[in-house]
Specification:
The protein is mainly α. The chain has one domain. The chain is built from 7 helices and no strands. The longest helix is centred in the N-terminal third of the chain and has 23 residues. It is globular and about 45 Å long. The two termini are about 20 Å apart. The relative contact order is 0.17. The model has no long low-confidence stretch (mean pLDDT about 90).
Length: about 150
């Protein structure tokens, strides 16, 4: 169990770095998408066990990490900036990507629900409160990976 905790901490730090790197403009955007999705998938694997459906979850995370859902702001007649609902939807959808893993019996539905709420609330608050883009992006990447073990609650 100690190795699982240490690997989770290491991958949480890596996910924070990948999330920032992909948003910094100095690296390709795919660094965030592939790096964070890989970190979350590996954390899920070491805590929940490996299953082929993780490929589907990885793909969903890759896709959901690619947007802040700011295109919906046009429907509200707002500008293209990100608002709290964009951060909430971003975190909710990235967390939702693990539903296939839980559906196939790796993880618990209660833990899945708790992770949905915790990740969504933390990312939303973090993104609204923190003004420095480096800390903001690192925090989002860390939160999304660090909350994966919550799927064990059941």
């Amino acid at each position: 169990m100690i190795w699982q905790i240490l690997i989770t901490i290491g991958l949480t730090v890596a996910s924070a770095a990948f999330y920032r790197m992909g948003g910094s403009g100095r690296f390709p955007r795919q660094v965030r998408l592939g790096g964070c999705a890989t970190c979350m998938t590996v954390v899920a694997g070491i805590w929940l066990g490996w299953h082929w459906i993780m490929v589907v979850s990885f793909g969903a995370m890759f896709g959901f990490l690619s947007t802040y859902w700011d295109f919906i702001n046009r429907f509200f007649k707002t500008d293209e900036n990100e608002y709290w609902w964009n951060w909430a939807l971003h975190a909710f959808m990235v967390s939702l990507a693990l539903i296939a893993i839980v559906f196939f019996g790796h993880g618990h539905w209660i833990g899945f629900g708790i992770r949905q709420v915790v990740a969504t609330v933390l990312v939303t608050i973090w993104s609204q409160v923190v003004g420095w883009d480096v800390a903001e992006e690192c925090g989002r990447g860390a939160i999304l990976t660090a909350t994966v073990p919550l799927l064990l609650i059941g």
